[in-house]
Every structure is written in C-alpha cells, then in structure tokens.
Amino acid sequence: MDRTYFHSIYYREPGGVLFEIATNPPGFTVDEPAGTMGTSLKLPEQYEPLRTQIEKGPAQPQIHRRMRIHEGQPVLRDGAPLATPGPVLILLHGRGSRAEEMIELGRALRLPNVALVAPQAADGEWYPQRFLPAGTERTLAGFPLWPCWRD
C-alpha cells in the first residue's frame, strides 16, 4: 500500500493483532529537502482537503472530574536529585501494591546517578474500572519500570 512516505503491507494474525511491515524509502524527502524539514506542514495528497482542520490541531479534551482521581496522591522520590540532568526511573506499582514497594525495588537495583520516582495510585488502582477480569493482570507479561531522561 502506498503511504506517500513509505510503502507497507498489513497482516492480521488469528488472535486479532494487526502487524504493519513498512519500507524506509521513499522517505520524507519525497516532498521537501532534508534541510527544510519541519519548517512547514507537508501532507500527503489525500489529506490536503483536510489541511485547515489538521492545522487547527485536536480539540482540547474535556477533563472529567473522575479522571483526576490520582490528584493529591503522594509521589515518592529517591536516588539522584531530579534537578540534575540524568536518567529517571519511573516505577509504577500494580493493582493492590504501593509506591513504597516500588521505591524499595528501585533502591535494590543500586543504580548510581539515577533518580527514582514512584507515584501512588488512589486506592492502589490506576484504573478503578477494570478492563480485564480480576486476576487476569497476573497472567499477562508486564514490565513495571519505565526509563526516561530528565533535563
């Protein structure tokens, strides 16, 4: 399938996961030189009729009061100060767990010069309305450590 900046094929596996396999060429220089990239909005031909709407950007989301359920919850910090440049490890606990447990895990990793941040979810749950049946989370592979960088 021609996507202007790349070509791709799609494959849906029996479990319903959609895979996209894409090429690098022709690349983003198909409609502008590399030296001027990012100075103006370039759109594939099929999206030009929507330019005005796209340039306006997305509408501001309406934040429902229930989306702020974690406001005021503690955010535990340890390790290197956040004020200094370097890596940050954000440790998110699972349902029924606590930020303190995640900070202990971060300490046990003994990562020098790494800031540790562990927010606490209200009532120990990030998503109070379950999208998976109770207990299912334990059967899914997960990785609770999210590395990022602080400036």
In a nutshell, what does this entry contain?
The protein has 151 residues and is α+β, with helices and mostly antiparallel strands.
Q: What does this protein structure show overall?
A:
The protein has 151 residues and is α+β, with helices and mostly antiparallel strands. 11% of the residues lie in helices and 25% in strands.
Properties at a glance:
single chain; 151 residues; alpha+beta; four-stranded mixed β-sheet; two-stranded antiparallel sheet; 6 strands; 25% strand; elongated
Rounded Rg: 22 Å
Number of distinct helices:
2
Unreliable runs, pLDDT <50, ≥5 residues? 136-147
Taking the alpha carbons of the first and last residues, their distance comes to 40 Å
The number of strands is 6
Shape: elongated
Question: How is the secondary structure organized here?
Answer:
Layout: E1 6-12, E2 18-26, H1 51-56, E3 75-79, E4 86-91, H2 99-109, E5 115-119, E6 145-150
Parallel strand pairs: 4-5
Antiparallel strand pairs: 1-2, 3-5, 4-6
